[in-house]
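Quick review question:
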Protein backbone atom coordinates (compact mmCIF):
# COMPACT_ATOMS: atom_id res chain seq x y z
CA UNK A 1 0.00 0.00 0.00
CA UNK A 2 2.84 2.38 0.89
CA UNK A 3 4.63 1.55 -2.35
CA UNK A 4 1.45 2.11 -4.34
CA UNK A 5 0.88 5.46 -2.64
CA UNK A 6 4.42 6.57 -3.41
CA UNK A 7 4.06 5.51 -7.04
CA UNK A 8 0.81 7.46 -7.38
CA UNK A 9 2.43 10.50 -5.79
CA UNK A 10 5.33 10.33 -8.23
CA UNK A 11 2.95 10.02 -11.17
CA UNK A 12 0.98 13.03 -9.95
CA UNK A 13 4.16 15.07 -9.51
CA UNK A 14 5.32 14.18 -13.00
CA UNK A 15 1.93 15.10 -14.45
CA UNK A 16 2.03 18.47 -12.72
CA UNK A 17 5.57 19.22 -13.84
CA UNK A 18 4.76 18.22 -17.40
CA UNK A 19 1.99 20.83 -17.45
CA UNK A 20 4.60 23.60 -17.55
CA UNK A 21 5.71 24.16 -21.16
CA UNK A 22 9.28 24.26 -22.31
CA UNK A 23 10.49 27.15 -24.43
CA UNK A 24 11.49 24.98 -27.38
CA UNK A 25 10.31 25.12 -30.94
CA UNK A 26 7.87 22.23 -30.40
CA UNK A 27 5.67 24.58 -28.35
CA UNK A 28 5.44 27.00 -31.25
CA UNK A 29 3.56 24.75 -33.64
CA UNK A 30 -0.16 24.22 -33.97
CA UNK A 31 -3.17 26.51 -34.27
CA UNK A 32 -3.48 29.85 -32.50
CA UNK A 33 -5.52 29.24 -29.37
CA UNK A 34 -4.40 25.63 -28.94
CA UNK A 35 -3.59 24.69 -25.37
CA UNK A 36 0.03 23.88 -24.61
CA UNK A 37 -0.68 23.16 -20.95
CA UNK A 38 -3.27 23.63 -18.22
CA UNK A 39 -2.93 23.20 -14.49
CA UNK A 40 -5.22 23.94 -11.58
CA UNK A 41 -4.77 27.34 -10.02
CA UNK A 42 -6.82 29.61 -7.75
CA UNK A 43 -8.55 32.96 -8.05
CA UNK A 44 -8.47 35.27 -5.03
CA UNK A 45 -9.18 39.01 -5.39
CA UNK A 46 -7.58 39.55 -1.97
CA UNK A 47 -5.26 37.22 -0.03
CA UNK A 48 -7.28 34.17 1.02
CA UNK A 49 -10.61 35.63 -0.13
CA UNK A 50 -12.96 32.84 -1.29
CA UNK A 51 -14.68 33.28 -4.65
CA UNK A 52 -16.61 30.06 -5.40
CA UNK A 53 -14.68 29.62 -8.62
CA UNK A 54 -12.42 27.10 -10.30
CA UNK A 55 -9.31 28.38 -12.04
CA UNK A 56 -6.63 27.04 -14.34
CA UNK A 57 -3.35 28.56 -15.39
CA UNK A 58 -2.95 27.92 -19.09
CA UNK A 59 -0.27 28.26 -21.74
CA UNK A 60 -1.63 28.63 -25.25
CA UNK A 61 -0.42 29.34 -28.75
CA UNK A 62 -0.77 32.81 -30.19
CA UNK A 63 0.83 35.21 -32.69
CA UNK A 64 3.40 37.95 -32.15
CA UNK A 65 3.28 41.49 -33.53
CA UNK A 66 5.39 40.35 -36.46
CA UNK A 67 3.15 37.37 -37.24
CA UNK A 68 5.40 34.73 -35.69
CA UNK A 69 3.95 31.92 -33.57
CA UNK A 70 4.48 32.26 -29.82
CA UNK A 71 3.21 30.90 -26.52
CA UNK A 72 1.33 33.08 -24.02
CA UNK A 73 0.10 32.31 -20.52
CA UNK A 74 -3.15 33.25 -18.84
CA UNK A 75 -5.85 32.19 -16.39
CA UNK A 76 -9.29 30.69 -16.98
CA UNK A 77 -11.81 31.34 -14.19
CA UNK A 78 -15.22 29.62 -14.06
CA UNK A 79 -17.88 30.12 -11.37
CA UNK A 80 -18.71 27.11 -9.22
CA UNK A 81 -22.42 27.83 -9.22
CA UNK A 82 -23.89 24.46 -10.18
CA UNK A 83 -24.67 25.68 -13.67
CA UNK A 84 -24.06 23.07 -16.35
CA UNK A 85 -25.45 24.81 -19.43
CA UNK A 86 -23.75 27.38 -21.63
CA UNK A 87 -22.49 30.59 -20.12
CA UNK A 88 -20.87 33.73 -21.56
CA UNK A 89 -17.10 34.14 -21.64
CA UNK A 90 -15.26 37.42 -21.10
CA UNK A 91 -11.75 37.69 -22.48
CA UNK A 92 -10.25 40.29 -20.18
CA UNK A 93 -7.06 42.35 -20.43
CA UNK A 94 -5.68 44.14 -17.39
CA UNK A 95 -4.16 47.60 -17.31
CA UNK A 96 -0.43 48.13 -16.94
CA UNK A 97 1.12 45.82 -14.33
CA UNK A 98 4.80 46.08 -15.29
CA UNK A 99 7.41 44.25 -17.32
CA UNK A 100 8.70 41.69 -14.81
CA UNK A 101 7.40 38.11 -14.97
CA UNK A 102 6.24 38.33 -11.36
CA UNK A 103 3.79 41.06 -12.43
CA UNK A 104 1.73 38.68 -14.60
CA UNK A 105 -1.92 38.43 -13.53
CA UNK A 106 -1.66 34.62 -13.33
CA UNK A 107 1.16 34.98 -10.78
CA UNK A 108 -0.97 37.12 -8.49
CA UNK A 109 -4.38 35.44 -8.67
CA UNK A 110 -3.49 32.55 -6.30
CA UNK A 111 -2.02 35.04 -3.79
CA UNK A 112 -4.77 37.62 -4.08
CA UNK A 113 -2.42 40.36 -5.30
CA UNK A 114 -3.47 40.93 -8.92
CA UNK A 115 -4.81 44.40 -9.65
CA UNK A 116 -8.33 44.43 -11.10
CA UNK A 117 -9.13 41.04 -9.56
CA UNK A 118 -12.05 42.60 -7.66
CA UNK A 119 -13.39 43.92 -10.96
CA UNK A 120 -13.02 40.47 -12.50
CA UNK A 121 -14.92 39.00 -9.55
CA UNK A 122 -17.86 41.24 -10.47
CA UNK A 123 -17.98 39.35 -13.77
CA UNK A 124 -17.77 35.84 -12.28
CA UNK A 125 -20.58 36.76 -9.85
CA UNK A 126 -22.78 37.28 -12.90
CA UNK A 127 -22.17 33.64 -13.79
CA UNK A 128 -19.72 34.45 -16.56
CA UNK A 129 -16.48 32.62 -17.25
CA UNK A 130 -13.44 34.89 -17.59
CA UNK A 131 -10.08 34.32 -19.24
CA UNK A 132 -7.30 36.78 -18.45
CA UNK A 133 -4.27 36.90 -20.73
CA UNK A 134 -0.82 37.61 -19.30
CA UNK A 135 0.17 39.15 -22.66
CA UNK A 136 3.20 38.10 -24.69
CA UNK A 137 6.41 37.76 -22.68
CA UNK A 138 4.84 38.41 -19.28
CA UNK A 139 5.31 35.20 -17.31
CA UNK A 140 6.69 33.33 -20.33
CA UNK A 141 10.16 33.30 -21.92
CA UNK A 142 11.13 36.54 -23.59
CA UNK A 143 10.31 40.14 -22.76
CA UNK A 144 6.88 41.68 -22.44
CA UNK A 145 5.81 43.43 -25.65
CA UNK A 146 4.12 46.25 -23.73
CA UNK A 147 1.96 48.52 -25.97
CA UNK A 148 2.53 46.46 -29.14
CA UNK A 149 -1.10 46.48 -30.23
CA UNK A 150 -1.47 43.51 -32.55
CA UNK A 151 0.39 41.19 -30.17
CA UNK A 152 -2.02 42.10 -27.37
CA UNK A 153 -5.06 41.72 -29.61
CA UNK A 154 -3.93 38.29 -30.74
CA UNK A 155 -3.28 37.26 -27.12
CA UNK A 156 -6.85 38.25 -26.10
CA UNK A 157 -8.56 36.43 -28.95
CA UNK A 158 -6.40 33.34 -28.56
CA UNK A 159 -7.07 33.33 -24.82
CA UNK A 160 -10.79 33.06 -25.62
CA UNK A 161 -10.07 30.22 -28.04
CA UNK A 162 -7.96 28.44 -25.42
CA UNK A 163 -10.64 28.80 -22.73
CA UNK A 164 -13.24 27.32 -25.08
CA UNK A 165 -10.86 24.44 -25.87
CA UNK A 166 -10.23 23.70 -22.18
CA UNK A 167 -12.59 20.75 -21.51
CA UNK A 168 -12.81 21.39 -17.78
CA UNK A 169 -14.18 24.90 -18.34
CA UNK A 170 -17.40 23.52 -19.80
CA UNK A 171 -17.54 26.01 -22.68
CA UNK A 172 -18.17 25.31 -26.34
CA UNK A 173 -17.94 26.65 -29.87
CA UNK A 174 -21.30 28.41 -29.43
CA UNK A 175 -20.12 30.31 -26.32
CA UNK A 176 -20.98 34.02 -26.55
CA UNK A 177 -17.86 36.11 -26.02
CA UNK A 178 -17.32 39.62 -24.69
CA UNK A 179 -14.05 41.56 -24.92
CA UNK A 180 -13.15 43.85 -22.02
CA UNK A 181 -10.19 45.99 -20.94
CA UNK A 182 -9.06 49.38 -19.68
CA UNK A 183 -5.87 51.42 -20.25
CA UNK A 184 -3.29 48.96 -21.60
CA UNK A 185 -6.16 46.50 -21.45
CA UNK A 186 -8.27 48.97 -23.41
CA UNK A 187 -5.66 49.08 -26.15
CA UNK A 188 -5.59 45.27 -26.18
CA UNK A 189 -9.41 45.12 -26.26
CA UNK A 190 -9.51 47.64 -29.11
CA UNK A 191 -7.03 45.60 -31.09
CA UNK A 192 -8.93 42.37 -30.37
CA UNK A 193 -12.11 44.07 -31.60
CA UNK A 194 -10.45 45.26 -34.81
CA UNK A 195 -8.76 41.90 -35.47
CA UNK A 196 -11.72 39.68 -34.62
CA UNK A 197 -13.27 39.41 -38.09
CA UNK A 198 -9.99 38.58 -39.83
CA UNK A 199 -8.10 36.68 -37.13
CA UNK A 200 -10.72 34.76 -35.10
CA UNK A 201 -14.03 34.99 -36.98
CA UNK A 202 -15.36 31.78 -35.43
CA UNK A 203 -15.57 33.43 -32.00
CA UNK A 204 -19.14 34.60 -31.30
CA UNK A 205 -18.13 38.05 -30.09
CA UNK A 206 -21.19 40.00 -28.95
CA UNK A 207 -19.47 43.22 -27.96
CA UNK A 208 -16.35 44.99 -26.75
CA UNK A 209 -16.12 47.28 -23.72
CA UNK A 210 -12.93 49.35 -23.75
CA UNK A 211 -11.95 52.37 -21.67
CA UNK A 212 -9.07 54.79 -21.23
CA UNK A 213 -7.67 53.58 -24.55
CA UNK A 214 -4.18 54.71 -25.64
CA UNK A 215 -5.23 54.71 -29.27
CA UNK A 216 -2.23 56.58 -30.73
CA UNK A 217 1.08 56.08 -28.97
CA UNK A 218 2.99 58.91 -30.65
CA UNK A 219 0.45 61.36 -29.26
CA UNK A 220 1.33 60.30 -25.71
CA UNK A 221 5.03 61.17 -25.98
CA UNK A 222 4.69 64.93 -25.25
CA UNK A 223 2.23 64.12 -22.46
CA UNK A 224 4.63 61.86 -20.57
CA UNK A 225 8.10 63.15 -21.44
CA UNK A 226 9.38 64.72 -18.20
CA UNK A 227 6.10 64.21 -16.33
CA UNK A 228 5.27 61.99 -13.37
CA UNK A 229 4.08 59.39 -15.91
CA UNK A 230 7.37 59.32 -17.79
CA UNK A 231 8.14 55.83 -16.53
CA UNK A 232 5.27 54.56 -18.67
CA UNK A 233 6.89 56.16 -21.71
CA UNK A 234 10.16 54.31 -21.18
CA UNK A 235 8.34 51.07 -20.39
CA UNK A 236 6.53 51.46 -23.71
CA UNK A 237 9.87 51.93 -25.47
CA UNK A 238 11.10 48.68 -23.91
CA UNK A 239 7.89 46.93 -24.98
CA UNK A 240 8.18 48.12 -28.57
CA UNK A 241 11.81 47.01 -28.63
CA UNK A 242 10.76 43.58 -27.37
CA UNK A 243 8.18 43.31 -30.15
CA UNK A 244 10.50 44.63 -32.86
CA UNK A 245 14.16 43.81 -32.00
CA UNK A 246 15.45 45.62 -35.06
CA UNK A 247 14.65 48.89 -33.25
CA UNK A 248 17.76 48.29 -31.11
CA UNK A 249 16.70 50.45 -28.18
CA UNK A 250 19.99 49.95 -26.33
CA UNK A 251 21.89 51.73 -29.10
CA UNK A 252 20.00 54.94 -28.28
CA UNK A 253 20.36 54.77 -24.48
CA UNK A 254 23.07 56.24 -22.31
CA UNK A 255 24.25 54.47 -19.15
CA UNK A 256 21.40 55.91 -17.06
CA UNK A 257 18.85 54.86 -19.67
CA UNK A 258 20.18 51.30 -19.84
CA UNK A 259 20.09 51.04 -16.05
CA UNK A 260 16.51 52.29 -15.86
CA UNK A 261 15.22 49.98 -18.59
CA UNK A 262 17.03 47.07 -16.93
CA UNK A 263 15.31 47.95 -13.66
CA UNK A 264 11.89 48.07 -15.36
CA UNK A 265 12.36 44.63 -16.87
CA UNK A 266 12.55 43.09 -13.40
CA UNK A 267 9.94 45.09 -11.49
CA UNK A 268 6.25 45.98 -11.47
CA UNK A 269 4.30 49.13 -12.20
CA UNK A 270 4.00 50.69 -8.75
CA UNK A 271 7.78 50.78 -8.31
CA UNK A 272 8.47 51.49 -11.99
CA UNK A 273 6.29 54.59 -12.16
CA UNK A 274 7.84 55.96 -8.97
CA UNK A 275 11.44 55.38 -10.06
CA UNK A 276 10.74 56.52 -13.62
CA UNK A 277 8.91 59.75 -12.81
CA UNK A 278 9.92 63.18 -14.12
CA UNK A 279 12.58 61.91 -16.52
CA UNK A 280 13.03 63.24 -20.02
CA UNK A 281 14.02 61.33 -23.13
CA UNK A 282 17.06 63.61 -23.39
CA UNK A 283 18.14 62.54 -19.87
CA UNK A 284 18.40 58.89 -20.83
CA UNK A 285 19.48 58.78 -24.46
CA UNK A 286 22.43 59.64 -26.64
CA UNK A 287 19.94 60.35 -29.42
CA UNK A 288 16.16 60.31 -29.51
CA UNK A 289 14.86 57.10 -31.13
CA UNK A 290 11.47 58.70 -31.77
CA UNK A 291 13.09 61.03 -34.29
CA UNK A 292 13.94 58.10 -36.56
CA UNK A 293 11.59 56.79 -39.27
CA UNK A 294 11.98 53.21 -38.01
CA UNK A 295 10.65 54.02 -34.55
CA UNK A 296 7.89 56.28 -35.83
CA UNK A 297 6.71 53.61 -38.26
CA UNK A 298 6.62 50.88 -35.64
CA UNK A 299 4.72 53.10 -33.17
CA UNK A 300 2.20 53.90 -35.88
CA UNK A 301 1.58 50.19 -36.40
CA UNK A 302 -0.07 50.11 -32.96
CA UNK A 303 -2.51 52.92 -33.82
CA UNK A 304 -6.17 52.02 -33.47
CA UNK A 305 -8.96 53.30 -35.65
CA UNK A 306 -7.74 52.12 -39.04
CA UNK A 307 -10.21 49.22 -39.04
CA UNK A 308 -13.76 49.19 -37.71
CA UNK A 309 -14.94 46.41 -35.38
CA UNK A 310 -17.76 44.37 -36.87
CA UNK A 311 -19.65 44.21 -33.57
CA UNK A 312 -20.94 46.84 -31.09
CA UNK A 313 -18.48 48.69 -28.85
CA UNK A 314 -18.91 50.45 -25.53
CA UNK A 315 -16.15 53.07 -25.40
CA UNK A 316 -15.55 55.22 -22.34
CA UNK A 317 -13.00 57.80 -21.25
CA UNK A 318 -12.53 60.19 -18.32
CA UNK A 319 -12.76 63.85 -19.27
CA UNK A 320 -9.92 64.65 -16.84
CA UNK A 321 -7.73 61.66 -17.73
CA UNK A 322 -4.20 62.86 -17.04
CA UNK A 323 -2.40 59.83 -18.53
CA UNK A 324 -4.36 59.16 -21.72
CA UNK A 325 -5.88 62.44 -22.95
CA UNK A 326 -9.62 62.52 -23.53
CA UNK A 327 -8.96 63.45 -27.16
CA UNK A 328 -7.52 59.97 -27.74
CA UNK A 329 -10.90 58.49 -26.87
CA UNK A 330 -12.97 60.93 -28.92
CA UNK A 331 -10.79 60.41 -31.99
CA UNK A 332 -11.09 56.63 -31.71
CA UNK A 333 -14.84 57.00 -31.37
CA UNK A 334 -14.93 59.12 -34.53
CA UNK A 335 -12.76 56.65 -36.45
CA UNK A 336 -14.87 53.64 -35.51
CA UNK A 337 -18.11 55.48 -36.13
CA UNK A 338 -16.85 56.48 -39.58
CA UNK A 339 -16.18 52.81 -40.28
CA UNK A 340 -19.75 51.85 -39.44
CA UNK A 341 -19.29 50.40 -35.94
CA UNK A 342 -22.17 50.90 -33.51
CA UNK A 343 -20.34 52.77 -30.74
CA UNK A 344 -21.97 53.57 -27.40
CA UNK A 345 -19.87 56.44 -26.05
CA UNK A 346 -19.57 57.38 -22.38
CA UNK A 347 -17.77 60.41 -20.97
CA UNK A 348 -16.74 59.97 -17.33
CA UNK A 349 -17.33 63.49 -16.08
CA UNK A 350 -15.96 63.06 -12.54
CA UNK A 351 -12.66 61.23 -12.11
CA UNK A 352 -9.32 60.61 -13.75
CA UNK A 353 -7.48 57.71 -15.31
CA UNK A 354 -7.25 55.20 -12.45
CA UNK A 355 -10.67 55.92 -10.97
CA UNK A 356 -12.25 55.52 -14.42
CA UNK A 357 -11.86 51.75 -14.48
CA UNK A 358 -13.30 51.37 -10.98
CA UNK A 359 -16.36 53.57 -11.39
CA UNK A 360 -17.25 52.50 -14.91
CA UNK A 361 -16.71 48.73 -14.73
CA UNK A 362 -20.24 47.94 -13.49
CA UNK A 363 -21.81 50.01 -16.27
CA UNK A 364 -19.56 48.37 -18.87
CA UNK A 365 -20.53 44.92 -17.55
CA UNK A 366 -24.24 45.88 -17.69
CA UNK A 367 -23.73 46.87 -21.32
CA UNK A 368 -22.14 43.50 -22.09
CA UNK A 369 -25.00 41.73 -20.28
CA UNK A 370 -27.42 43.44 -22.66
CA UNK A 371 -25.40 42.21 -25.62
CA UNK A 372 -25.44 38.64 -24.26
CA UNK A 373 -29.21 38.98 -23.84
CA UNK A 374 -29.56 39.95 -27.48
CA UNK A 375 -30.85 43.44 -26.84
CA UNK A 376 -30.41 45.79 -29.79
CA UNK A 377 -27.83 48.55 -29.87
CA UNK A 378 -27.86 51.44 -32.27
CA UNK A 379 -24.87 53.38 -30.98
CA UNK A 380 -24.75 57.13 -30.56
CA UNK A 381 -22.40 58.15 -33.35
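Suggested answer, residue by residue:
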Amino acid sequence: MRVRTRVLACVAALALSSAVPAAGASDRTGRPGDLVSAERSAFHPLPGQPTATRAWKIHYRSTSATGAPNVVSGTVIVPQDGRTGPRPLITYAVGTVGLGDSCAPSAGFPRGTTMEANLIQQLTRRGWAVVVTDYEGLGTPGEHTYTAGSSAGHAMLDAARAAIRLPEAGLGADTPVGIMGYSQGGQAAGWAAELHSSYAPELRVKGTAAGGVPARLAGLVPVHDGSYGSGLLFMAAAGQDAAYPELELDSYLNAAGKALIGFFRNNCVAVDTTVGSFKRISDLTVRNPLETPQWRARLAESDLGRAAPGHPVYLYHALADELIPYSQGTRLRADWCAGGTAVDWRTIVVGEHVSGVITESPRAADWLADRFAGKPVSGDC
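Why it works: The two ends are 71 Å apart (CA to CA). DSSP finds 13 helices and nine strands in the chain.
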